[in-house]
């Protein structure tokens, strides 16, 4: 016997919804002095609550009913309001719930029924039916000439290296042939696969030739050889266990954008190192060259820092009775994890073998709750009486630019980060610092007066300028979200990642910043993929069906010849992990949209076609099946 919690939308408007919540006691025991805990990502207006009171920290809510008795077979009912957009998906409902008695969780299970939505979308996207293309290449190479005939790889086929730069790519190819096709050459035989240096090719570019004399992969950079291998792996058909065939072809290919990235949030939910490596390997298959590792956030600090072991001993775990309350899931257990520096080195080396640079992100000054709770003696300002409400509903998650401890923390963290990550770029976050922050802090006021700052944005700039200078002394270039240039304090060396819209990127590019485009409306893989209410995901930026992801064209209205376009270094897609708990969910959100984004990153505009992509995707799905990638079936 259990409890059942039901949430129903009673009424909804553009920026306001009212809900009714019912707790059924289906057990044969009455409860006294009980409470309900649950998880929601919306902010519940405390004054709107009936029949009790609610306390909310982030996504974590505790309800204390006005009647502290709940008899067997009876129910409790309350109503409340939110001031944000209507809910359209089941995953917008309550994510986890727990009953407490005398402040302690009880073991009877709590069943959550799907949220009763007032106006779920009725539309469904339907993809055109297409034939699977024989050359199922994604991203589409920029020049392909196919001819009749197939080359056969057999157990005596060998990989031969005539370029030291190709060593890692050759090892990767060999590993992938085994992993995907179960294929390994046993005897010493013919040099059927030849890696050869071709100094005429640019960074990342490659040529792949398959003819009766064998397979030749050419490049002048180690990453170019990886891309050549990735294309070859997509061309292979397996005839039998030990025989693979490859069509005769000549491909000459190079990337459209220099920066082709994906960001993974490992803070909201922790992704074990094997899951991270699996993703990096997939990125290599689609010719991405950057993995942006979001390692810190309000809900968890995931990177071992030797100077501050508390960041992970405290800040990597959350749950009842710990300094960080449960968030997003796992109400009834301690949840978390972190990467040791040795594991980070392992990930970096793994990525490097696949032509991928790992950019770490340490998100400051917002999104710092886990750090502040771990190091209160350094990072908490007891005199700061400012009232603010962050987007994710915290009022205690922003570093203070006026505390000496903030600088000690930042300097030591950045020193270790700079040492650990070979990447030239370090991402400093800078997103979503809420209104109202710092204004009631005497020390911040003093700092503002000293420098003649007019706004909190300038205080943020003050801190970020320090970070930029620190990183420069460590040999690194600072990069950050679009808010990093607010307050006008950082130099034009800072690379700006726009995410709220493309507009910020355009403005920044006009001012002389290099930009990476990661607009939520097109590149956020945590957005739902269709309008059906059972689609998992969020929709604050948009619903992103496959076609919209595919059709993303950065700053489309800026003509090709405009010098502003030189400022666009590339594109990045992102997976935020508020509801990404398992490998299965991760695969579902990423695939196949990642393949669409890969084409936006790589393929020249003239060679892109939605219908062409779809038929190649159809031909490509068996390769995903072979790897047990649990993608969203595009033609369902
Ligand atoms: C916005 S994108 C955020 C993240 C959230 C994400 C959810 C950005 C810089 N900030 O903190 O996880 O939306 O979609």
UniProtKB/TrEMBL annotation:
EC number: 3.2.1.52
Domain Glycoside hydrolase family 20 catalytic: 257-604
Family, per entry: Belongs to the glycosyl hydrolase 20 family.
Keywords, in A-Z order: Glycosidase, Hydrolase
SUPFAM superfamilies hit by this protein: (Trans)glycosidases, beta-N-acetylhexosaminidase-like domain
Native species: Vibrio japonicus
Gene3D superfamilies found in the cross-reference section: Chitobiase/beta-hexosaminidase domain 2-like, Glycosidases
Class in the EC hierarchy, top level: hydrolase
Source superkingdom: Bacteria
Record-annotated Beta-hexosaminidase bacterial type N-terminal domain positions: 136-253
Catalysed reactions, semicolon-separated: Hydrolysis of terminal non-reducing N-acetyl-D-hexosamine residues in N-acetyl-beta-D-hexosaminides
Pfam families: Glyco_hydro_20 (PF00728), Glyco_hydro_20b (PF02838)
Protein name, UniProt field: beta-N-acetylhexosaminidase
CDD domains found in the cross-reference section: GH20_chitobiase-like
